[in-house]
Amino acid sequence: MENLPSEIFNELLDQLEPGGREVPTVDSRRNPWARPQPCKPDHIDSRHHYASLRLVCKRFDNLAAPYLFRSIGLRFNAKSFSRLASLAGNPVLARHVKKFVYLMPYIYEEGTQDFDAFRNDETLGLSNKIRQIMFEEQEPYYYTSVYKEQQHLMRDFYDLNVLRKAMTAFTSLQEVHLLAIMMHKDIVLRNLASSFDNWEFIDCKWIPACTHGVETLLTALHDAKSSVTVLRSPTLSPISMMLLSPKTKHISPKVWNQLTFLEITFDERPDRSYLDTSGTTLIGHDDRLAKMFKQFFKSAENLTTLYVRFTPGMPVRLPLNQVFHSIHWPKLRILGIGSWMLHAEELIDIATRHKETLAGIRLSEIYLLDGDRWKDVVASLKENIKKLEWIGLHDISYQREYVRKQAFIETYSDTSSEYNFDDSDPEMDGMSLRSRGSNSSTTASQGPLSLIDEEGEDVVYGNVFTTTPATGQGGPAFVVIRELPFGIHSKNGMIHDEEEELEDNGRTVTPAQRKHWERWIMGKTADGEPYSRPL
């Protein structure tokens, strides 16, 4: 085996995980807002195999290292920061890192009442089950332990110094993710605190956590002169962006300027109302917010791919121009917008502004305001965007349809049901895999991540996907559907022509209409067959 040429050996290693030496390429047609799918069968633990292979001999160590260290995950705890510091101190391994995932927990803050008062307060009305979850039988208690550890990491800028060292050492770094993560005990505390108007005890919040995560990441990337070009975050708080320190606001444009790929989901909800999905606080009246968006997007002038949406299921009533400010990105090829209530002219304007470069458009959960029609948007895209290679229209409709559905949900939904969170595959750093052996975790697919710890389960807050208990899959259980030819549908066992249903009625948009419009704009089907059906 030791005499095999490196090329042949790499071919063998690729069988464990095809393309494992590289960070997955940014496929512009991939839907970043779709539910992540497992990247390989659960029984294949390729990262553990790579880690074991490195122990055989020096040559195998060198061959397996690019597979194992190409993607690194950091948790906000002392153990993970220590491993990151060790990796940063090893330039031979650090040079393989191409993707960095920062798993940021909610920051704990002390209340006016101490923890003992919280634990002994009988007026909270905690059930025995909740009390058992929140308070262990003996010390150290989870909440106080996490609070002390977080304060220790932030004291004297320890976390920033380690991040700065790591960003300097990761000379091949291309991609950075900032994700929110929650333990089950965090969720229980958030649910409890949200049920009180005045919460006086220890609490955990995302806005200060997001602020701290963005500040330390931006500072580290700037000071290290990192060449990162891809930034993803499915839970970025716009309030946090406004709360950045003056120093960070000053240096951030330099980081934004080098980005070519930006995928952001803005979570605009305040900390105390994070469970409220009935409405949004962004309605186009905050000048500070508009100023933040303008600086942010104007600085990122080299973007070729831009995906921006707000909290799924909570479309904002915010004029597009208060976010993008008529900015023109001269190199923009892919544009994605989601979870928004807009006028047709706003969509037409931003698309036409980039008609010379746009090759792909993705619109998701876009609801046109009363009086506007999707057929006008569709006609404009076909007429003006001549270089378009693909288009995706997902869950688009009208404002009145969204309002109708919300009224139905509020009337008939079962608010007593428990929340289920998706447990995606974790993404761990390579250093930990050598100590955990066969219990190491596989690499997650792109998208919201969760991490399983020895002491309990973590789940990701923000854009989480609910799971079906019986299957563990998002949405309904699998149903085998026999697809009928396009233009034909079955209703009550009868076959009907959809000619009339393809017309834009200004009230709702069906899946058949969306597919028809996609094909009409492109002039062909997904298989490349000519499509001549009229609009």
Could you describe the 3D structure shown?
The protein is of the alpha/beta class and 535 residues long. Among the domains are: 1-25 and 42-68, no CATH class; 71-276 and 414-459, no CATH class. It is 37% helix and 16% strand. The chain has 20 helices and 16 strands. Strands 1, 2, 4, 6, 7, 8, 9, 10, 11, 12, 13 and 14 form a 12-stranded mixed beta sheet that branches. Helix 13 runs parallel beside helix 14. The protein is globular, with a radius of gyration of 25 Å. The chain starts with 5 loop residues before the first helix and ends in a 13-residue tail after the last helix. Residues 38-44, 274-278 and 413-497 have low confidence and may be disordered.
Low-pLDDT stretches are: 38-44, 274-278, 413-497
Helix content: 25-40%
Tell me the number of strands.
16
Please report which band the strand proportion falls in: under 5%, 5-15%, 15-25%, 25-35%, 35-45% or over 45%.
15-25%
Question: What would you call the structural class?
Answer: alpha/beta
Largest sheet: 12 strands, mixed
Count of DSSP helices? 20
In whole angstroms, the N-to-C terminal distance is: 62 Å
Q: Outline, from the CA principal axes?
A: globular
What is the radius of gyration? 25 Å
Mean pLDDT rating: 77
Give a brief rundown of this model.
The chain is of the alpha/beta class.
Descriptive tags:
two-stranded antiparallel ribbon, alpha/beta, 16% strand, 535 residues, 12-stranded mixed β-sheet
